[in-house]
Amino acid sequence: MSNAKLTYLGASSSTDVSSAPQLYREIWRRVPISLIVVVIIPTLIAAAYYLIFATPAYVSETRFVIRQASREQPSPLGFALQGVGLSANQTDSFSVHEYMKSRDAAADLQEKTNLRSMLARPGVDSLSRFPRPWESPSADTLHRAMGRFIKVSYDSTTGISTLRVKAFKPDDARRMATVLLDGGEQLVNQLNERSSEGAVREASRDLDEAETRLKASQLSLTTFRNRERIIDPSRAAVESSELLGGLMSELATMRAERAQIARTTPQSPQLELLDGRISAYEAQIEAERAKIAGTTQSLAPKVATYEALSLDREYAERSVAAARTALDNAQIDARRQKLYLDRIVAPNLPTDASEPKRLRHIFTIFLSLLVAYGVGWLVVAGVREHQQG
């Protein structure tokens, strides 16, 4: 009984072993060749690369923020612009981001860290290093290759920017991040200088022009006074008018007195004396009137010229005062609006290689190829069904 049982078990075991390859062959036979070519083989190649050949890389991370020395309460329009992501701090931060991705940054890194040699360390696989087999070692290609090693992002809720630098040695990653931060800080300082110098320079030029105009108007007024030998024609005209008014009052009094004497004593000798005085007063009144108006040498045209020159000087003085105020405000605004790059987190020295994400990349490639294969299969099936119909 036991021998029979052993014989039966042995036969069953040998049957399973012999049928296993046949089962695998049957499974592979049912797998479409296109699936193998499009999905399985590329996934296996990617898995071999990431698991065996891909060189580990280290990532140094740093965080910074661009801020102003003092910030005033924004206007309603400022709130609206901030609501759609157009705040001034974002613009300043994006300026630094653009520098970190620019050719200027690549040139700074090459000059200060020898970027080419850092991205082509011995032992680095050909697909990770620079230049890759199909790339040229030119400056343009180096600039484009920076996108694989440098990532910078912005958090709109906190205003904090994050810089992530990848390299094949921990020291290299930290050095690159430090150089980029130093370059960003230098850019912020240049923006400060341009902003402050531009506003102050314009205000200073306006002040110089206003002062030049004031000097010219003052010189014209002084020339007029020296030529006419009078300080203030308006005041002289007022004094002459007061004198003329007094003379006319005296003349009226004398005429009234003569009329009274003529009625009471027509033969009085005082009438002749009064007539002489009246004639003298009338002549004096005509002379004073001629001084005030009526001829080119009278005060009226001089007053007009003087008032025009005085008005020019007054406008020039106001322009100088306004220009000085504008210059003071420009200097104050330049100090108030000064930007700073604050390093919240300094570039760290990584201890573990965090790149590449091997399993994630393999799964992503597999899933992408599978989706592409599914879409292609649906398209082909639809075409065949259309042709059969």
Features of the shown structure:
about 400 residues; alpha+beta; Bacterial polysaccharide co-polymerase-like; 3 domains; 4-stranded antiparallel β-sheet; 12 helices; 4 strands; rod-shaped; disordered N terminus
How are the SSEs ordered, and which strands pair?
Elements: H1 2-30, H2 33-53, E1 58-68, H3 76-83, H4 88-100, H5 103-113, H6 115-118, H7 139-149, E2 150-155, E3 160-167, H8 170-228, H9 233-264, H10 270-292, H11 299-336, E4 339-345, H12 358-388
Antiparallel strand pairs: 1-3, 1-4, 2-3
Please give the CATH architecture of the largest domain: 2-Layer Sandwich
Task: Give the biggest sheet.
Answer: 4 strands, antiparallel
Question: In DSSP terms, counting alpha (H) and pi (I) runs of 4 or more, how many helices?
Answer: 12
> In percent, how helical is the residue content?
over 70%
Characterize the structure shown:
The structure is a single chain. This protein is α+β, with helices and mostly antiparallel strands and 389 residues long. It folds into three domains: 56 residues, no CATH class; 162 residues, Bacterial polysaccharide co-polymerase-like; 109 residues. It has twelve helices and four strands; from the N terminus they run ααβαααααββααααβα. Strands 2-3-1-4 form a four-stranded antiparallel sheet. β2 and β3 form a beta hairpin. The longest helix has 59 residues. The chain is rod-shaped and about 170 Å long.
Summarize this, please?
This protein is of the alpha+beta class and 389 residues long.
